[in-house]
Amino acid sequence: MKETRAEKAQRLVDEGGVVIERVFPQYTQALVQGDHARYVLSTYANGTFFCTCEWGTVHSYTDDLCAHALAVKLAVEKEN
Length: 80
Prior knowledge:
It is a single chain. The protein is an alpha+beta fold. It has one domain (5-79). 36% of the residues lie in helices and 29% in strands. The protein has helices spanning 5-14, 54-59, 67-79, and strands at residues 18-23, 27-33, 38-44, 49-51. Strands 1-2-3-4 form a four-stranded antiparallel beta sheet. Helix 1 packs across helix 3 (67-79). The longest helix is centred in the C-terminal third of the chain and has 13 residues, at 67-79. The mean pLDDT is 93.
């Protein structure tokens, strides 16, 4: 059975695949080692995101987060 985006995000965090580079009040910059490549990410305080993954090229700047953006949010929550 295929992982959900939430399950994949949690796995990426658990595997140490998320590197938070900068945290600002309005956005967070990070790198995420996905299953096939390393992705550049920004998550924004308004709930949107930018990711260089295939999903992100279509859905960036929406609130329909890819697994990588969800992983960044989980990693930031874990740090706080």
